[in-house]
């Protein structure tokens, strides 16, 4: 998530959630929700709070080969 923070941002809670689970869209969406649970906007970037979960799920889908 380096594009939405001042430094690369690892999604550790999402990684832990996904460990041992099947590569499914449902699991990717749940991981994205978990990843964004504590996220807060700063007014001018609040739109990223809606875009980020979709971007996370899509990146996981592409990385896993579930195109």
Q: How is this structure best summarized?
A:
The protein is built from 3 helices and no strands. It has 67 residues and is mainly alpha-helical. Helix 1 runs antiparallel to helix 2 and helix 2 packs antiparallel against helix 3.
Question: Which features would summarize this protein structure in a list?
Answer:
single chain; 67 residues; mainly alpha; globular
Task: Break the fold down into its secondary structure elements and pairings.
Elements: H1 12-18, H2 25-35, H3 47-64
Report what the structure shows.
By secondary structure, this protein is mainly alpha-helical. The chain is 54% helix and 0% strand. It contains 3 helices and no strands. The protein is globular, with a radius of gyration of 12 Å. The chain starts with 11 loop residues before the first helix and ends with a helix.
């Amino acid at each position: 998530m380096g594009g939405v923070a001042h430094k690369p941002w690892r999604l550790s809670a999402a990684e832990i959630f996904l460990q041992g689970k099947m590569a499914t869209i449902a699991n990717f969406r749940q991981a994205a929700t978990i990843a964004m649970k504590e996220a807060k906007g700063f007014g001018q970037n609040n739109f990223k709070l809606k875009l980020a979960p979709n971007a996370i799920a899509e990146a996981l889908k592409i990385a896993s080969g579930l195109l």
